[in-house]
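Final report, closing paragraph on structural work. Over the funding period we assembled a curated collection of sequence-structure pairs, and we close with a single example.
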Amino acid sequence: MAYKTLFTVITDPAIAKPALDRAVAIAHAEEAHLDVLCIGVDRTQTGYYYAGASAVFQQEVIEKAKEEAVTAETYANEHLANEGIPFAVDKAVAQLAGLGRLVAHRARFSDLVVLPRPYGKGCGQEQETIVESTLFEGQVPTLVVPPKTKANIDAKRIIIAWNESSEAMAAVRAALPALIAADSVNITVIDPPQHGPDRSDPGGALSQMLVRHGVKAEITVLAKTMPRVSDVLLRHARDINADMIVMGAYGHSRFREAILGGATRNMLENTKIPVLMAH
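Its predicted structure, as stored:
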């Protein structure tokens, strides 16, 4: 497949630039259309208004969200005006509780979503909600871009975090255009199960599939020498100077991930390079 429709969401221009720049770079490379949804978020909790809040307060909150949407819309249009790609910018206002449904409905008609990293300085709860809604309700592969990522660097060295799961397989299929274009793709297997279907050749079947697509793939098997799988992956990414990581998202329930952590959340909190995920 090719990426012909890209999608991104802007709620705060202060954290939007790395993801927007990467989306523009992909749009140029793939001759794709970029849709931008600019959202003003009402962050009050559902039902709060009915606990004695005045009509004046309600109106002030809504007006502030509208202003945020207009600010984001202006930023997106000015940023994209001279980029030479087809794009469309739309704006909306949503309460935090309904944000996921709005984003998922718009994201599901795209081939790839490009979003800023949802954790870190300047990020609110809405950023996490947006990423989860594109992956789960929207069912769209999502490229998460950390701060200070340079848009003009192609992903020449890519790591695939391979654990034989359906989530990882979905991510690999979604990443095929990038994998084919890369100079090298490292299929990384951490502590492969002794009784798994690929126990005699971890990653071998995936490597064979990718090579038939013209991907320059190699396999690395690593021991889990650190408490978290994500830490092993990030260290390996630094060791080989990788430009991107491809991985499945949320092998466990989102509730369990939120309470106990997990490879997905830890990766998004700590990665310094873009991560392409699918569920």
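The two ends are 17 Å apart (CA to CA). The beta strands are 5-10, 33-42, 87-95, 112-116, 142-145, 157-161, 184-190, 217-222, 244-248, 275-278. We thank the funder for supporting this effort.
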